[in-house]
């Protein structure tokens, strides 16, 4: 790992600690969230079969066609509603949130609020 900033090391420690207790099953898959300074990614994963069921990000064509102008928090909420809509189309209603070591604040919280408003339960 080339970048060993204290923030990254702390996030990876939190990620390992959280990941021990979170596992996505077929009846309740895992909603994994990852963010960078420019983009945010979310995917719903079934860990038993090791497949991604649904994904959404700021790089998706559907998002770029209906682009949300505003702050990053508003964009994250739009991505949350997009993944919630896609999950409901696939028949997924309950998920487990995997925040990937990020603090439940700001964009991560906005994405989960958007997914809840779209109909996901977690």
From TrEMBL:
Keywords: Ribonucleoprotein, Ribosomal protein, RNA-binding, rRNA-binding. It comes from the Bacteria. GO terms for cellular component: cytosolic large ribosomal subunit. SUPFAM superfamilies: Translational machinery components. GO terms for biological process: translation. One of its GO terms (molecular function) is structural constituent of ribosome. InterPro entries: Ribosomal_L18 (IPR057268), Ribosomal_uL18_bac-type (IPR004389), Ribosomal_uL18_bac/plant/anim (IPR005484). Pfam families: Ribosomal_L18p. PANTHER family: 39S RIBOSOMAL PROTEIN L18, MITOCHONDRIAL, LARGE RIBOSOMAL SUBUNIT PROTEIN UL18M. This is one of the proteins that bind and probably mediate the attachment of the 5S RNA into the large ribosomal subunit, where it forms part of the central protuberance. Part of the 50S ribosomal subunit; part of the 5S rRNA/L5/L18/L25 subcomplex. Contacts the 5S and 23S rRNAs. Belongs to the universal ribosomal protein uL18 family. This is Large ribosomal subunit protein uL18. It comes from Desulfobacula phenolica. The gene is rplR.
């Amino acid at each position: 790992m080339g970048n060993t900033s204290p923030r990254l090391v702390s996030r990876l420690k939190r990620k390992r600690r959280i990941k021990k207790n979170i596992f996505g099953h077929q009846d309740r898959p895992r909603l994994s969230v990852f963010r960078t300074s420019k983009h945010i990614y979310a995917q719903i994963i079934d860990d038993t079969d090791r497949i991604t069921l649904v994904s959404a990000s700021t790089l998706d064509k559907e998002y770029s066609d209906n682009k949300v102008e505003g702050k990053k928090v508003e964009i994250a909420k739009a991505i949350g509603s997009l993944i919630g809509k896609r999950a409901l189309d696939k028949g997924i209603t309950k998920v487990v949130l995997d925040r990937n070591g990020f603090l439940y604040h700001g964009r991560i919280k906005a994405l989960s609020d958007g997914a809840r408003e779209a109909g996901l339960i977690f």
